[in-house]
Amino acid sequence: MALSDNYFLGIDLGTSGVRGSVIDNEGIERAHAKIAFPHNQQAEDWHRGTFDIIRRLCSQVEAARIRAIAVDGTSSTVMLCSDDGTPRTPALMYNDLRCSLEAETIKSHAPEDSAAQGAASSLAKVLHLLKQVSHVRAQRICHQADWVAGLLCGRFDISDENNCLKLGYDPVARCWPDWLTILGIDDTMLPSVYPPGSVIAPVLESVSAETGLPANCKVVAGTTDSIAAFIATGANEVGDAVTSLGSSLVLKLLSDKPVYSSKLGVYSHRLGDAWLAGGASNSGGGVLLKYFSKKQLDALTPELDPDTPTGLDYYPLVTSGERFPLNDASLEPRLEPRPDNDVTFLQGMLEGMADIEASGYIALAELGAPAARKVYTAGGGSVNPAWRKIREQKLGIPVVSAEHTEASYGTALLAMRGYEQVISEKL
Q1: I need a surface site. Which of 132, 172, 181, 340 has the fewest CB within 10 A?
Q2: What is the pLDDT of residue 39?
Q3: Residues β-bridged to residue 33
Q4: If we measure between CA atoms, which residue out of 28, 33, 23, 27 comes closest to residue 54?
């Protein structure tokens, strides 16, 4: 079978459900499917949803062509399990903030710029879970993506460099740091860490029989959902950036070196031979929806005039407090004076967000990252041409809407890279 005849499957375990994409060697999406999760999702929901998605996708394409599969999951969603993958604790989700006491303990031992800092980190959650299982033997720490990949290949002792960052993994030295043992982490529970896109093992025969995946399909190390979405856009050169225009404003920039700032919530993921640095502002689409309905926004948008700036100096926030590019918990929203004309008010907010975006990329450059040279746009705001033009004026660089933004598509690209690497090594 020619390389061009191969298919690659990506699974995205997102905040609300599981999605899957099958792409061919040219990056054309051949099939897509999605299933919603229940509100209080747990490991069995991931299992059931993933296998259902795989079966659906295998029925939509010639399944024998699928050469590799990769899985992404929500960052810092984690649980403890046995060697064979049996869950020993409930899963603590990415947005669970109950682990403030554990975060204080981590603060005493972890480097200031470690992504393991904070109550939402994988490490804080693991320390919390370890207190709950003193009477139950738990042998493995598994992130969401790790566990599902383990179901596919039978190995629950593996993870990737991106999911492990918030568990304390050192992506520069590419090892687990000694200070983790001081916190009481048994190093035998820590996973073996693979670069995203590395081939791990073939799928189990039982999985092949149950899902329709071919027996020679390789399981490839995945990543987190947000990084998979970055990969999906096609951004792959140093200086390429992606701005996600969702309820908040999330900036990611591909850098030739890691940059960090605990003060601004900036840390760097290793991605191939480069580094993905990012920060998140509390501004974003949530502010727009505080003042306008979706219907109103749709009606006002065609009236925007990007070539005539409003002159309004807004800093749009839903409530007080900002984290990036400014770290000011008491920063108040600046949305006065409000003009009588709603179009002018809306344009002023969009201009303010564009100023924040431009300041964000400047802040990353001041930390040592390269200047952004091109910005891909994802999220609901990416389809607004007037907002894109306003941003292009403020940023002074090209702003393009990404053709692909689904994390499952980005994870399928990882699966393809892993397979192609194996093929090139054999040649």
Answers
A1: 340
A2: 80
A3: 20
A4: 33
